[in-house]
User: Which sequence fits this backbone?
């Protein structure tokens, strides 16, 4: 991920984080990273230097909250969970995402005709 | 909402930074363990796994990124910069002292000056809606100077305006005189306003206690009622609770007190600040002239002693009101062609009445001059920062090499200059406070507001603005200069020490530009000060027509109640003169109708053989015998009044030379006849004295005719002392009280004070301009010295080579001086070009000198060259003492 794309990436990543927490329940950073990689079919590699700023931004905006708890291997880790505002945000983002993809999809569905007429 | 919440959290985090850092550490450590566990499960050895995990996580980079997203990085780096700046200042106390003092002087002087501008020009008068409050005057272009614009209004005019105007909600009329308040311990003299009942309504205020006059009380015979100013209520009655049941004795007559004005009541000044009425007591003015006798009625209608205040209707402009009133006046001219010949009318806003145009010009000129001082101070500090930046090149190169962005460097340098500026401004506020006290001391008495300067919110706002502007002005050039540094060259040069200084540090061009700017900026205040000095000189060289030294004058008002008959007033005048002349320290004494240099009484006159429509006026003054000797006005021709002529009010005149020349050019005025006033009394001229001048009213010579009299109601005693006048005041008061213990003598003052007071505004402008010009000159000299000293230090090696090649000390000194002089000449040329335009705006303040006075500009140029030579001498000497062996070994 280059610097110039990070802003866009950060927005999309935030959505992925919210969705992950919605479906999985409270998770620590490692868990979130693994889950995103898994869902993407290992097409994405989540970098902690990118993930953490997204987590902090979401926490500052009040969409997620964090607390210390014991992890699977009995170590203290920080768990992130979705807040009520976060839940609403997921719904809103999901609707917007759907609309945006539909619009973009319309530009791609009918294949440009002239290309086929070429010899 | 989420933005605001986010900002709140970020700010909150500033205070728990360390805790957050520890938590982050722990959180990431936990994740590193999980990553390591994953590593082991995918085949790494347990020893390798943690290290690989940390590398994979880019642990330090992640931490740094997180820190950047947390809190407020901009504010944090700013605070960091501030700490750095403070550390730099502590490390360089010499630099800190010079830089801070320079900024403090610039900002302090500006703050003090702005507090004056704020108090005089921007102040809000303590009256309701003062923007719509106007003063109305009659005017007559036949009269000279200020009088051509503003003449006290006749009752007839006021009544006509009031009835027919369409521009004002209401017009109020007043007339000012003075009364003696007796019955207390010592008699005091207060200014009285006789007012129409709507006076306070028009001004927009209500009495603090009691009531105002009713309509009936000012439309008929004047009842013996009085309203008091708060000051008089306090002084004379000790704020008595039963004040509304008390009486006050005015000129020996009891008046029932019906009201007290609020404490903060203050009338605006009149005549562009010349007259500041401070009434102590108000009584009713009858605005319905007597019906009983036609003659009495005419007399009252024609009394031209009134001041008229008006409140504009909403939406009416000043210009429209002026046109309206002038139209009404022209109707009066048609109805009364004789009485209103050549008359017109004027309307001025209360703000124009309060402060004269000249004072406005003067204050703005001073603010501009002091602004130039701040600019010079900024150039000096920029200079210091540049010189210091040269010493920091290595630091900056290293930071650039380590990846600091240029923007970040500029930001740091600007933060530093902001810290300097703010510290300097704090120091400057202390200086400003002292400066304001000095300003108040210097302030001419006739400017409203200068005694009420304070460091209030607008002034502090101005200071903050000046601080920010200064920070950018002196910080930007050094910051950009530092950031422009080329990484490799400077590192390379620093490491090899082989590069020549000419390439590093501040470039020669930049240095020269700074010097040129300083000189150009210093020129305008210097030239302004020079012009004011010449103006004052010309004013002082003006012949006032009198010798005011060792002369004291004081005014006495004889109340009409006790001194009704002319014989009583005659007897009083005779006895007073006799008693005063008997004092051993008195050389001569005389009486005169109004205070010398302060009063004017314009009367219609005519000459024998004048056509009936010929309009002539003269300033006529009543004076006793010995008046001219006492004032030191030597008779040019003829003789003075005899005692007998004064006692008998003889029909003779002593006239001033200007009047003689105007009436009878080229002829001998002695024995000529002047017909005075409406009674057509014939007076013959017996002597000629010099014209006098009232400088506050302009520089025109005042052409006066003196009539002998010893029967004066309002009189000014003029006494010339044999020795000093210090002990004379109490002695005069004693003599007066032995005649009548109830009479106060007021405005008892040396005549020199009056003469000097008349040029107080010009003196004020001059003294301040000199102070600011001196400040500008000193700062420019320091700046010049700094630049040249730095240049010499940088060229040590080159100078060493020159000397090794056989240059003599004189050559080296000449080289340095030439560099300084060249910059100065360029600066002077730019400065003169700029000043010529600026100084033209000062024209109205000047007298006897043109705004482009070549002598002033030559003197200023010479002064700047002299200062340059002095400032460059030390660096030049140092250059000449360079030892070539040392300079070259320094490699």
Assistant:
């Amino acid at each position: 991920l280059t610097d110039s794309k990070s802003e866009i990436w950060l927005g999309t990543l935030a959505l992925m984080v919210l969705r992950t927490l919605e479906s999985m329940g409270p998770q620590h950073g490692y868990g979130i990273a693994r889950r995103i990689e898994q869902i993407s079919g290992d097409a994405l590699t989540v970098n902690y230097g990118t993930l953490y700023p997204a987590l902090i931004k979401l926490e500052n905006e009040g969409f997620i909250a964090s607390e210390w708890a014991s992890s699977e291997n009995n170590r203290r880790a920080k768990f992130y969970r979705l807040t009520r505002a976060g839940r609403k945000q997921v719904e809103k983002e999901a609707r917007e995402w759907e609309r945006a993809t539909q619009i973009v999809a319309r530009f791609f569905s009918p294949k440009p005709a002239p290309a086929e007429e070429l010899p | 909402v989420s933005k605001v919440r986010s900002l709140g959290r970020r700010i909150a985090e500033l205070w728990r930074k360390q805790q957050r850092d520890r938590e982050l550490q722990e959180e990431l450590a936990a994740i590193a363990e999980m990553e390591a566990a994953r590593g082991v499960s995918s085949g790494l050895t347990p020893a390798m796994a943690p290290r690989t995990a940390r590398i994979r996580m880019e642990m330090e980079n992640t931490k740094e990124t997180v820190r950047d997203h947390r809190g407020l990085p901009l504010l944090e780096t700013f605070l960091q910069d501030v700490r750095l700046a403070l550390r730099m200042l502590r490390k360089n106390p010499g630099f800190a002292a010079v830089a801070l003092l320079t900024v403090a002087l610039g900002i302090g002087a500006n703050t003090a000056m702005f507090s004056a501008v704020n108090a005089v020009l921007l102040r809000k008068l303590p009256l309701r809606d003062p923007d719509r409050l106007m003063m109305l005057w009659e005017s007559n272009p036949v009269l000279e100077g200020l009088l051509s614009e503003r003449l006290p209004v006749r009752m007839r005019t006021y009544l006509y305006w009031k009835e027919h105007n369409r521009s004002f909600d209401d017009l109020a009329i007043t007339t000012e005189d003075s009364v003696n308040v007796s019955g207390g311990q010592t008699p005091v003299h207060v200014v009285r306003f006789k007012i129409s009942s709507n006076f306070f309504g028009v001004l927009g205020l209500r009495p603090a206690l009691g009531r105002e006059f009713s309509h009936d009380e000012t439309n008929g015979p004047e009842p013996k009622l009085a309203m008091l100013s708060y000051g008089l209520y306090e002084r004379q009655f000790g704020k008595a609770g039963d004040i509304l049941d008390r009486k006050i004795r005015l000129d020996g007559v009891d008046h029932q007190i019906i009201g007290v004005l609020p404490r903060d009541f203050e009338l605006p000044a009149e005549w562009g600040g010349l007259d500041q009425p401070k009434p102590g007591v108000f009584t009713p003015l009858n605005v319905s002239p007597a019906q009983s006798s036609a003659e009495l009625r005419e007399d009252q209608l024609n009394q031209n002693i009134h001041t008229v205040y008006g409140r504009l209707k909403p939406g009416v402009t000043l210009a429209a009101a002026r046109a309206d009133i002038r139209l009404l006046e022209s109707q009066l001219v048609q109805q009364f062609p004789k009485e209103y010949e050549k008359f017109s009318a004027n309307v001025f806003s209360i703000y124009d009445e309060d402060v004269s145009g000249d004072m406005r010009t003067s204050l703005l000129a001073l603010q501009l001059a002091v602004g130039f001082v701040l600019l010079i101070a900024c150039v000096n500090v920029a200079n210091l920062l540049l010189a210091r930046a040269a010493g920091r090149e290595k630091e900056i190169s290293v930071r650039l090499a380590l990846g600091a962005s240029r923007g970040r460097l500029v930001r740091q340098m600007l933060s530093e200059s902001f810290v300097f500026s703010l510290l300097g401004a704090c120091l400057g506020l202390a200086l400003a406070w002292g400066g304001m006290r000095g300003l108040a001391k210097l302030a001419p008495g006739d400017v409203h507001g200068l005694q009420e300067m304070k460091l209030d919110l607008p002034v502090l706002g101005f200071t903050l603005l000046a601080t920010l502007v200064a920070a950018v002005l002196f910080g930007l050039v050094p910051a950009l200069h530092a950031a422009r540094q080329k990484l490799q060259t400077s590192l390379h040069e620093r490491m090899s020490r082989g590069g020549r200084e000419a390439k590093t540090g501040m470039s020669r061009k930049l240095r020269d530009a700074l010097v040129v700017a300083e000189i150009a900026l210093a020129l305008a205040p210097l030239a302004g000060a020079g012009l004011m000095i010449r103006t004052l000189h010309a004013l002082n060289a003006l012949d006032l027509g009198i010798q005011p030294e060792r002369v004291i004058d004081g005014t006495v008002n004889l109340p009409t109640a006790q001194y009704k008959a002319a014989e009583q007033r005659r007897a009083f005048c005779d006895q007073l003169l006799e008693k005063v002349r008997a004092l051993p320290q008195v050389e001569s004494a005389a009486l005169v109708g109004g205070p010398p240099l302060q009063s004017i009484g314009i009367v219609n006159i005519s000459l024998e053989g004048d056509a009936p429509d010929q309009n002539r006026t003269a300033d006529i003054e009543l004076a006793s015998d010995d008046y001219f000797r006492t004032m030191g006005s030597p008779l040019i021709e003829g003789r003075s009044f005899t005692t007998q002529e004064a006692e008998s009010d003889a029909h003779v005149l002593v006239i001033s030379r200007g009047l003689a020349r105007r009436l009878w050019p080229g002829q001998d005025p002695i024995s000529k006849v002047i017909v005075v006033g409406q009674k057509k009394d014939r007076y013959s001229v017996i002597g000629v004295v010099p014209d006098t001048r009232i400088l506050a009213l302009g520089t025109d010579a005042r052409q006066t005719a003196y009539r002998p009299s010893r029967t004066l109601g309002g009189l000014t005693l003029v006494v010339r002392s044999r020795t000093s006048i210090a002990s004379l005041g109490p002695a005069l008061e004693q003599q007066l009280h032995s005649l009548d213990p109830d009479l106060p003598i007021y405005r008892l003052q040396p005549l020199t004070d009056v003469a000097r007071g008349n040029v107080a505004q010009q003196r004020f402008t001059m003294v301040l301009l000199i102070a600011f010009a001196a400040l500008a000159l000193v700062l420019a000299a320091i700046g010049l010295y700094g630049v040249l000293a730095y240049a010499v230090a940088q060229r040590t090696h080159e100078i060493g080579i020159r000397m090794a090649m056989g240059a003599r000390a004189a050559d080296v000194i000449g080289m340095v001086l030439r560099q300084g002089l060249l910059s100065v000449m360029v600066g002077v040329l730019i400065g003169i070009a700029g000043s010529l335009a600026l100084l033209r705006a000062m024209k109205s303040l000047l007298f006897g000198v043109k705004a482009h006075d070549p002598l002033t500009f030559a003197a200023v140029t010479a002064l700047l060259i002299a200062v340059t030579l002095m400032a460059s001498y030390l660096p030049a000497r140092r250059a000449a003492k360079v030892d070539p062996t040392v300079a070259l070994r320094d490699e």
